[in-house]
Write a structure and sequence with these properties.
A: 218 residues, Cytochrome Bc1 Complex, Chain D, domain 2, 2 domains, 7 helices, 5 strands, B: alpha+beta, Immunoglobulin-like, 27% strand, disordered N terminus
Chain lengths: 218, 457
């Protein structure tokens, strides 16, 4: 596609100018003429690090649970806990097992503090993506591919998802059976239907509940 | 002499006459509000009679600035607010996050009087801290299912047809701390994860036409160049989730308003808001408006990233986990009075507030002063624009009684802002995101204004 867009303004003005018998040079017919550069997908590759839920674009490499222990203890445990229990206000790696997590949901308790890879993560390949891209938190994106596979594997093992002898790789990660996978449902809000009542909307005295329990002190 | 009594000093009989004429009109409106239901009148909201004004007799003094020279031009090359406005700043809540680099700050809407958020007050949400990206070397790549993958410099983007629009951005966690009960004692913290700016940039659809996006592409994703390299999947027509279920059509339309923004309120983006460029996806939760944007890829399925499977999700009481809850639904709040703006004596006030919807324009805002039993439609202040903050106002005569005041917005799709009880019935009491319920403030007899929730409302 070379001529992609001709603005109405451009056309109209050009037609007017031609009626006067003048040159149309400089009046843009293509609003993007000469802007930007083409790039090959090969040239984009170093930036194209995104991994899909189904494992598409996982880089070649591998790491075992065992190989993940040292880097996890050195780079991750101070925030996420030696056993994935979380620390210093940072997220857990392993929360309640799925049945207990679902039970707490049914009681109306999301419990973000209870989320882990074993109850609120649908697909193992994007766990690798997160770790390779964003971790360790204080030096994001500095772990190698094999190291990231190993840490991914260690975290999956902390969540009881893969056995001690498992090897995480671009060949195996997509098939890891994540406990939460089938619980996800795409949003279809609105999920409530209030009406625009204007008068006598209820017939009792409103009862105020809840004083400020925490507040913010400056 | 206090400033209050100065403000009330009559300058002349003529002015007094105008004032009282205006006042009569004002009172008629106020009475209308009070009388909008019998219950409200019974609650004692009818006009309480003239409030006795003080009389100033001491001669006025010249004032501290009257006989000196002020500062010269460019003494402050980039202007700053008055030193008397130092309290109008972004704030954070220290216990909310483990650190300040993966954290959020709040816009002080209680001190703002328009629809535009000044750039220094736009809330911040970083996942790995704000970074300084050099526009001379920064590049934007657009690739994937396109005829020609391309790379653009910042100057390239500025040569293209520009697009300007005013839109709000809102973190889906706005109001999150109030799900279980009343928690925050300031409007800044109940509603400050939202800001509204004029944005200028290049329309995504223009760029799509230029690179020639394959019609089979049903998703795109955008990615930043900060430490988190934050990435979000954005649906287009025909998008399906990872299970093959269709994404609702209204969400698949949101990208049509998207732009690659380089200017905010006329100046370059601030570093905290993505300088030199950010993705801007009006109407959707603001984490999708990727800051420090480096790459857009057109694809045919969602990534289901960390943000989409672990972070911005809503586990529900029905035992499912809601994903791709992208749209910020209709919301509103009264910012005057509010816990930060208390009553200053009996008499005339104007109730003012802000309303916004990710699905389009605000159609109505109704105000109640009796806990939601009776409502009156407020005046919408022009302009009223799509996916933009709309200001509303309504005169109010306070006679010193207790009141439960609240606002309720309806957007152009007919969606009416819900009560907290309605949300809790569907999403539980311990949810996090997309809490857009009606906010009540209680005016005490003392004039104090408190954040409250109302039972079964």
């Amino acid at each position: 596609m070379s001529k992609l867009k001709t603005s109405k303004f451009g056309l109209g003005l050009a037609a007017g100018v031609m009626a006067l018998g003048l040159s149309t040079a400089g009046i843009a017919a293509d609003e993007f003429n000469g802007i930007g550069a083409k790039i090959t997908e090969k040239a984009v590759e170093p930036w194209d690090i995104s991994v899909f839920y189904d494992g598409t674009n996982l880089p070649e490499g591998s790491g075992t649970v065992e190989a993940g222990q040292n880097p996890y203890d050195a780079k991750c445990a101070m925030c996420h806990g030696a056993f994935g229990e979380g620390a210093e206000g940072y997220p857990k790696m392993a929360g309640d097992p799925m049945p207990a997590f679902i039970k707490s949901l049914k009681q109306g308790l999301d419990g973000v503090g209870n989320r882990g890879v074993n109850n609120a993560w649908g697909h193992a390949p994007t766990l690798f993506d997160m770790i390779k891209r964003h971790m360790p938190f204080y030096a994001p994106g500095t772990m190698g591919v094999d190291e990231s596979y190993a840490v991914t594997c260690y975290v999956l093992n902390l969540g009881g998802i893969v056995p001690m002898d498992f090897t995480c790789s671009d060949k195996t990660l997509a098939d890891v059976d994540m406990p939460a996978r089938d619980y996800y449902v795409t949003d279809t809000r609105p999920d409530v239907d209030n009406e625009r009542c204007m008068s006598d909307c209820y017939d009792y005295d409103p009862k105020v509940v809840g004083a400020v329990v925490t507040g913010v002190s400056e | 002499m206090s400033e209050t009594t100065l403000d009330q000093t009559p300058q002349s009989d003529a002015r007094e006459g105008v004032a009282s004429s205006d006042r009569r009109k004002f009172l008629r409106k106020s009475v209308a509000l009070a009388a909008s239901g019998a219950a409200a009148a019974a609650a004692g909201n009818a006009y309480a009679g003239d409030v006795k004004l003080e009389t100033v007799t001491e001669p006025l003094k010249p004032g501290a600035t009257r006989n000196i020279l002020g500062r010269g031009v460019v003494s402050v090359p980039y202007g700053m607010p008055s030193k008397f406005e130092k309290h109008v700043v972004r704030r954070n809540v220290s216990w909310l996050t483990a650190d300040t680099v993966a954290s959020i700050s709040f816009t002080p809407w209680q001190d703002l009087n328009g629809i535009i958020t000044p750039n220094g007050l736009h809330f911040e949400r970083h996942h790995a801290g704000a970074v300084d990206v050099d526009p001379e070397t920064h590049q934007l790549v657009i690739h994937g299912m396109v005829d020609k993958p391309m790379v653009f410099s910042m100057e390239d983007l500025k040569r293209m047809p520009s697009h300007t629009a005013i839109h709000f951005l809102e973190c889906p966690a706005n109001g999150a701390m109030e799900w279980r009960g009343v928690q925050m004692d300031s409007m800044q913290f109940t509603h400050g994860m939202m800001a509204c700016s004029e944005w200028t940039g290049v329309k995504l659809t223009d760029l799509m036409e230029y690179v020639g996006v394959d019609p089979k592409s049903t998703w795109l994703y955008a990615e930043g160049t900060d430490g988190s390299a934050l990435q979000r999947s954005i649906p287009m027509e025909g998008a399906k989730d990872q299970f093959g279920e269709p994404i609702p059509a209204d969400q698949c339309d949101m990208y049509k308003d998207a732009m690659i923004a380089y200017a905010q309120n006329g100046e370059a983006l601030r570093p905290e808001n993505g300088y030199p460029i950010r993705f801007l996806l009006p109407g959707c939760e603001a984490n999708m408006s990727i800051k420090w944007l480096r790459r857009i890829k057109f694809v045919d399925k969602p990534l289901v990233t960390y943000q989409e499977t672990r972070h911005y999700i809503e586990p529900l009481p029905d035992g499912t986990i809601r994903q791709f809850s992208l749209v910020n639904e209709t919301n509103s709040v009264i910012n005057y009075p509010c816990p930060d703006n208390q009553m200053k004596g009996k008499g005339a006030y104007e109730i003012r507030g802000i309303a916004w919807s990710g699905r389009g324009k605000i159609a109505h805002v109704d105000v109640s002063v009796d806990g939601g039993k009776n409502w009156q439609e407020a005046e919408l202040v022009q302009p009223v624009m799509s996916k933009c903050v709309t200001k509303f106002k309504l005169p109010f005569e306070w006679n010193g009684d207790e009141h439960l005041i609240m606002s309720r917005a309806t957007d152009e799709t007919g969606y009416v802002q819900p009560t907290l009880m309605q949300l809790r019935n569907v999403r539980g009491t311990n949810s996090i995101y997309h809490k857009n319920s009606i906010q009540a403030w209680k005016i005490e007899k003392t004039g104090e204004v408190k954040n409250v929730q109302i039972e079964n409302f």
